[in-house]
Amino acid sequence: MRVTMAGLGVSGGENEISCVQDGRVFEHGDDWDVDSCVACACQVGRALTMLPLWVDKKVPQNPFGGHDNPLWSLWSPWSPCTTTCGRGNITRVRLCNNPPKQKGGSGCAGIATETKPCNNTPCPVPGGWTSWSEWGPCSKSCGGGLLSRERKCLNPAPQYGGKLCAGDASDYEACNKQPCLLDPCLLLTPCFPGVRCTSGSDGSWQCGECPVGSHGNGTHCEDDNECDVKGVCVTACVNTDPGFYCLPCPPRYKGTQPFGLGLKEAQRTRQVCTPYNPCKDNTHACHKHADCFYLGLASEVLYKCVCAVGFAGDGFLCGEDADLDGWPNSGLTCKRNGTYHCQMDNCPSVPNSGQEDLDVDGQDACSVDMDGDGTKASLTPDWWVPNDRDNCALVYNTEQRDTDLDGVGDQCDNCPLLHNPRQSDSDNDLVGDLCDDNEDIDEDGQQNSRDNCPYVANSNQADHDGDGKGDACDHDDDNDGVPDDRDNCRLVANPKQSDADGDGSGDACFDDFDNDNIPDALDPCPLNRDIKSTDFRKFQVVLLDPKGTAQSDPLWVIRSQGTELLQSANSDPGIALGYDKFNAVDFSVTFYVNTNRDDDYAGIVFAYQSSRRFYVVMWKQVSQAYWEKKPSKAFGTAGVSIKLVNSSTGPGEYLRNALWHTGNTRNQVRTLWHDPNKTGWKDYTAYRMHLIHRPKTGFIRVVVYEGREILSDSGAVYDHTLAGGRLGMFVFSQEHVLFSDLRYECRGTETNHHKSCLILTSENLCDFAFHLQITDVCWDKRNHPSSFGPLSPFLCFKGHLLTFTTSKCK
Q1: Between 21 and 663, whose confidence is greater?
Q2: CA angle, 193 as apex, 187 and 195 as ends, to 5°?
Q3: CB 271 within 8 A of CB 234
Q4: Number of CB atoms found within 10 A of residue 773's CB
């Protein structure tokens, strides 16, 4: 039977040895009965349950198991730690006396003593000195100085609150006690002001280096002339003592104004002055639907604004232009440039760039009866009757000179030195058959005997000094004695080279580089005084099938002071050709077919040299075979085509069929590009056609807009066959074709000779050129001051010059 300790207790604290049970107190060694089965004994203050009682209630002599074996007492409290810092121990003990050992009994099992570590707090470590260092140099060379040495408290360094090293960290000893001689640096001040002087113990002295910005031996120093460094300043360099600075950039330029001390600073620093370009800086005032064109420093206004395709106005205000004729659908309140193209279009559905209104009803292009006489308007032109007494009725020639006495004045004689009264010109190149040898070594459309630069392509034949040598091959275009590469007005004689504002552009040509009285901002060809505006009022009619009877000849009507032409007949192929001649050119025209009859060709001609040699952009409405199957295949495909005409026969049925055919015809026509989308034109719809031609690189691009959107784009097409020529309009079997808002602009050369240049390298040139569709490479012939460096090649792009270091494109 087992019993529990319930009801048993201990009296007092741990040090008392009496026991308490049911309110009764028993001393050490006492025993008592709890009930008939349980007896207890008090041992050192603990009441222990004894074995169950026997029936006779006699307790065995040893109630703890029948042996005299004692038990462990309780553990004593832990002793204090053996150390106050660092590692120590604490201990506790117990006694084998519970109960005391009886006779024959054995000891207790286990240990009587238990130990564990204590006090892990590190003990303080006092610092210790290192060895003394070597003695240092004497602080004075004479007059008593000090030697010094040092030691450090790092052997070991104080730790955990340990004490610092006792004693001094530095030790001193007297040295050089001998008297000093007089200091020459103080006595003589032999060095240049600002130069350090060092005295020797023997009375000698030595000067240091001259101050920055000067040179010499330290005793004598002279100011450096930083302005002798080449290219440090674009403007004037001012040498100060010491130092230098650059004057501010010229008017209309922006850039740095360096300053500094010394030649190294001057070599490191370079003044950079770039023309202020509102278009590039986006500080212009152009309308959001206009493009900004930088005009350069030679122009009074730095830029011009041109409304984008599909809009019209003065560029500062632009409104929608549904018929693409350059006049807005609604009137604009323009404040600049007067009311130029800001008035409301009097016929917004039909292109009419001249805004003609004969009967003052507000519109002619939309009117059935233009003159108000009750009769439908006739499209037949009023033929001009020449003056019988004028030997050049269409050319101003007051002297009436006629060298060959053929009745035709020299000013309009196609062979002025050969008698040819009939003026026969079978190839329509303005050179009479009697003197036409068609020898043209530079392929510019000017035969060698008449070419003012026979070995340099210059279709425009510009010769501003009238010396018989074209500007393209003349090293002094204005004959003022200043070579073109140093002339600040290349086309206007100004031997004194006056330039009041110092911007590099001469006063004589400011805002009018070619001196044609047309401001550069409004001049379509600012480097050619012979071209002042887009003007087709004088045009040559070229018939490309003059003997054919399949259709009539084209019938052309001129309008809007030569900026609009109407072709009214369903005709054989023909051209209305202007007389202005171009090298690189941009040509734009609004194309409109004012009928729903027929579906054939119309377009533009460029680089025209003769009726045998020209480029043509042809646009057909639908695909169709030509009805005359001979002498060659002729199938026209819908869409825009760019063709090279290089005919061995010239006008006639062979050329006629070759022009109709979309493809190549040997010895006649070669198709350079055809729109793969085969998109034809639509009746009563205005389109804007834009041509870019750069003969020097052979670059050709044609873009056609319908409204604001691009309808067709040839991308970059290259052909070097023709190096420029004349512009015109082309028709073939299509009536009522209107060519409106005609605009041409010369490209390829700048009027301003100080450029905002982007330096290109061999790594980025080709990608850059392709991205911007750069189309011409030229040498700038105008003045380059020494600060701008020698002549450099330039890329010509949209009237801006970009210089480059290499031009190898694979």
Answers
A1: 663
A2: 90
A3: yes
A4: 14
What would be the CATH architecture of the domain defined by 281-349?
Answer: Ribbon (2.10)
Q: Using a cut of 0.85, tell me whether the model's pTM lies above it.
A: no
Give pLDDT tens digits for 101-160.
666 667 788 899 999 998 778 889 999 999 999 999 999 887 889 999 999 999 999 998
C-alpha dihedral, 447 to 453 to 454 to 459, nearest 10°: -50
Side-chain half-sphere of 233: how many Cα atoms within 13 Å? 19
What pLDDT digit, counting tens, does each position of 638-659 carry? 999 999 999 999 999 999 999 9
565-603: per-residue pLDDT in tens? 999 999 999 999 999 999 999 999 999 999 999 999 999
CA distance 50 to 32: 10
CA angle, 79 then 81 then 82, to 5°:
105
The CATH architecture assigned to 539-747 reads: Sandwich (2.60)
Q: Is the dihedral of CA 106, 108, 111, 112 positive or negative?
A: negative
Question: Tens digits of per-residue pLDDT, 211-235?
Answer: 998 999 999 999 999 999 998 998 8
Distance CA 727, CA 743 (A): 11
DSSP secondary-structure letter at 418? S
- The answer for residues whose C-beta is within 8 angstroms of residue 632's C-beta and 6 or more apart is 654, 657, 658, 661, 665, 668
* Nearest in space to 195 (alpha carbons), one of 162, 218, 225: 218
CA distance 461 to 441: 15
Question: Bigger pLDDT: 300 or 493?
Answer: 493
Can you tell me the distance from the alpha carbon of 454 to that of 475, in angstroms, rounded to the nearest whole number? 15
- SS in 3 state form for 694-738? ECCCCEEEEEEEECCEEEEECCCEECCCCCCEEEEEEEECCCCEE
Largest Cα–Cα separation, the chain: 181
d(CA 493, CA 508): 8
* Residue 767, φ and ψ in degrees, nearest 5: -65, -40
Chain mean pLDDT for the chain: 82
Q: Which residues of 551-584 are buried (b: 16+ CB within 10 A; e: fewer)?
A: bebbbbbbbbebbbbbbbbbbbbbbbbbbbbbbb
Q: Are 73 and 96 in contact (CB under 8 A)?
A: yes
Q: Where are the domains of the chain?
A: 281-349, 539-747, 755-810
Phi, psi of 660 (to 5 degrees): -65, -35
Q: Do domains 281-349 and 539-747 have the same CATH topology?
A: no
The two three-digit tokens of residue 121, written as one number: 């707090």
187-190: long-range contacts, CB 8 A cutoff, minimum separation 24:
190/219
- Tokens 């360094």, residue located: 157
How does residue 795 score in pLDDT terms, banded at 50, 70 and 90?
A: very low
